[in-house]
Target: Neurotransmitter-gated ion-channel ligand-binding domain-containing protein
Amino acid sequence: MASEDEERLVRDLFRDYNKLIRPVEVMNKTVEVQFGLSFIQLINVVSSIDSLLRNTPAPGVTEAGHSVPE
Model:
């Protein structure tokens, strides 16, 4: 669930967004998109899978499956 601040940020960022406009000078040029993933997310997934295999909660998660605030 997104917080109120996150929702306001997304709303502000996309207020005048037009999906038909391409960020290129020449319309037939390709748009290069790059993205990345932080290792901490991968480590959390591995930890969760390991916990599922051991049938124990992952660190920072209660037995009911709720996240514990840091």
Notes: DSSP finds two helices and no strands in the chain. Residues 1-51 form one domain. The CA atoms of residues 7 and 13 lie 10 Å apart. The two ends are 17 Å apart (CA to CA).
